[in-house]
Amino acid sequence: MSIDFKTGGPSPSDLAAIEAEWPQIAADLAKLEAEIRDLDAADHGVASELDRRRKRRTEAQLTRTATRITQPANGLRPAA
């Protein structure tokens, strides 16, 4: 990651790379939240059908984003 010394933040190409990866990041976060809900439900002995449905939905979302073909925008390098 390179630093844009004018703003002190990431460069435009770094931001574009993050934007390109965001669907996968969001899917990973949703999966983590579903796993946390599962652990919480297991601790309290209560797991609802809605919780199970949410977990299946987030797993499906994670699979879809992991298998989608990604192409970096013109002139931008892929994230490392």
Helix-strand category: mainly alpha
Shape: elongated
Strand order, sheet with most strands: 1-2
Average pLDDT level: 77
Span between termini: 8 Å
Main beta sheet: 2 strands, antiparallel
**Number of strand elements:** 2
Unreliable spans: none
Number of helices: 2
Helix content: 55-70%
Strand content: 5-15%
Rg over CA atoms: 18 Å
Order of helices and strands: EEHH
Give an account of the 3D structure.
By secondary structure, the chain is mostly helical. It has a domain at 26-67. The protein is built from 2 helices and 2 strands, in the order ββαα. Strands 1-2 form a two-stranded antiparallel ribbon. A hairpin with a 4-residue loop joins β1 and β2. The N and C termini lie close together (8 Å). The relative contact order is 0.18.
